[in-house]
Design goal:
Largest sheet: 6 strands, parallel
Strand content: 5-15%
CATH class of the largest domain: Alpha Beta
Keywords: Hydrolase
Structural class: alpha/beta
Strand order of the largest sheet: 5-4-1-6-7-8
Shape: globular
Helix content: 40-55%
Number of strands: 8
Protein name: HAD superfamily hydrolase
CATH superfamily of the largest domain: HAD superfamily/HAD-like
Number of domains: 2
CATH architecture of the largest domain: 3-Layer(aba) Sandwich
Radius of gyration: 18 Å
Organism: Lindgomyces ingoldianus
């Protein structure tokens, strides 16, 4: 692959473009605890503890993990009901309070103005949640609505990262090969999805607390194969240069 072969930037949304995870997990925790109470499970989650345990998963994936962790089942109707309720609560919070990750707007503006790369959003979250997030912070001007992809909504069978299906789907829809893309991810599950899809990865640890940043740098680099890990979006041009040189 020659230098400059990268044509397409695939961006996770939650806590990569938009500081949405804390807001979303506040709403998720209420419903998760309702499920646990109904299933006679004593444990309870706060928003932060749920985020730490299930970061990078959508709510459907989170409920599947809860079922496995605590050995209970939910019917399809129960799944669908909880997903619908969670989505409404989260979208309301995001439309009110979502903010962009630090420095990301400047970088998206540059990429959009230069027209060197195509950009798309590739998320585990439901499409309406992603759309609400990027619209609230003014990012919707950078992305063709057809190029905002959701593992929960865009696929024939809903799934969640670390399943690479949404990345594979996005590449097919965009008409690009995985090797000519670069993904930007902040979580183990998202980074693993990109790795499994064969997409070069830039890790991002900006939203994490200092102690967690150290841990996640190691996870993203050593476990998930990130070519480079950035702490602030102003590092993106150099990170992209490193990816392109590594691919040369």
């Amino acid at each position: 692959m020659a230098k400059g072969k990268i044509t397409t930037i695939l961006l996770d949304c939650d806590n990569t473009l938009v500081l949405s995870e804390d807001l979303a997990f506040e709403a998720c925790a209420e419903l998760a605890n309702e499920i646990l109470e109904k299933k006679n499970v004593a444990d309870r989650f706060t928003g932060p503890s749920l985020l730490k345990t299930f970061v990078g998963q959508n709510f459907r994936g989170m409920m599947t993990s809860l079922c496995s962790k605590y050995n209970f089942t939910l019917t399809d109707d129960e799944f669908d009901s909880y997903v619908s309720r969670e989505l409404g609560a989260v979208v309301a919070k995001l439309e009110k309070d979502a903010q962009p990750c630090h420095g990301v707007m400047d970088e998206l503006n540059k990429i959009h103005a230069n027209k060197t790369y195509h950009m798309a959003v590739v998320s585990s979250s439901a499409l309406s949640r992603v759309q609400a997030s990027i619209a609230k912070v003014g990012m919707d001007i950078f992305f063709d609505p057809k190029h905002v992809y959701s593992a929960a909504t865009s696929l024939p069978t809903p799934t969640s990262k670390p399943d690479p299906a949404v990345y594979i789907h996005a590449c097919k829809e965009l008409g690009v090969e995985p090797g000519e893309c670069v993904a930007v991810e902040d979580s183990r599950s998202g980074a693993t999805a990109a790795k499994r899809a064969g997409i070069p990865l830039i890790g991002y640890v900006g939203p994490y607390e200092e102690e967690e940043k150290v841990k996640m740098r190691k996870v993203l680099k050593e476990e998930c194969g990130a070519v480079v890990v950035m702490e602030h979006w102003r590092e993106f041009p150099e990170a992209l240069r490193i990816v392109e040189e590594a691919a040369a």
